[in-house]
Write a structure and sequence with these properties.
Keywords: Membrane, Transmembrane, Transmembrane helix
Domain Type IV pilin Tt1218-like: 38-114
Number of domains: 1
Strand order of the largest sheet: 1-2-5
Shape: elongated
Organism: Alcanivorax hongdengensis A-11-3
Pfam families: Tt1218-like
Helix content: 40-55%
Number of helices: 4
Low-confidence stretches: none
Mean pLDDT: 83
Number of strands: 5
Protein name: Type IV pilin Tt1218-like domain-containing protein
Distance between the termini: 99 Å
Order of helices and strands: HHHHEEEEE
Radius of gyration: 30 Å
Strand content: 5-15%
């Protein structure tokens, strides 16, 4: 009784109301959805980084093959590279020029390298493709590795290398 006199009327609320509980659940749900969105974004960026890393390794492999077969640079740049992706899981091209008893010309070795690089790109990248060509009329050679829906020819523009944010390609320019 004395409390009623001191404060007027007693507060009759004894716990949380349904409205407060629903607001708390709404705030929690928004937080969980935000976290899930961040996880999805992180997974996509991680996959993109992995694809770029694989493409860089394939391009480096191509450069090393060209250096090992130095006299056949024109064969690599003028060759008809596969214009469609290699079916993933297919057997690697047979090693026609490998072994001490076999003798192959530089052009034969370049032909096998082209098949091997196309096979590597198709098996290590989604819709992966590779091409080696002269870079837009300069004295540079471009090793182009693309994946996804992008084709190697889409990686080069009239101004040079495509720098679009959604570009799915790695281009290595090498001076001859």
């Amino acid at each position: 009784m004395q409390l009623m006199k001191r404060y007027g009327v007693l507060n009759k609320q004894a716990g949380l109301g349904m409205t407060e509980i629903l607001v708390a659940l709404l705030v929690l749900a928004i937080g969980v959805l935000g976290y899930a969105g961040l996880q999805l974004s992180a997974l996509k960026k991680s996959e993109d980084a992995n694809n770029r890393s694989e493409a860089t390794l394939i391009a480096q492999d191509a450069l090393e093959r060209i250096q090992a077969n130095d006299g056949s640079l024109a064969t690599y740049t003028s060759a008809t590279w596969p214009t469609s992706t290699i079916v993933p899981g297919a057997d690697a091209p047979p090693a026609d020029c490998v072994g001490a008893a076999k003798s192959c010309s530089g052009a034969d070795m370049a032909s096998w390298d082209i098949k091997q690089l196309a096979w590597s790109a198709g098996n290590q990248l989604p819709n992966g493709m590779v091409d080696i060509r002269d870079c837009n009329g300069s004295s540079m050679v471009c090793v182009i590795v693309s994946w996804g829906e992008q084709k190697p020819e889409d990686c080069l523009t009239s101004d040079g290398v495509s720098t679009a944010e959604d570009s799915n390609c790695v281009v290595m320019e090498v001076s001859r």
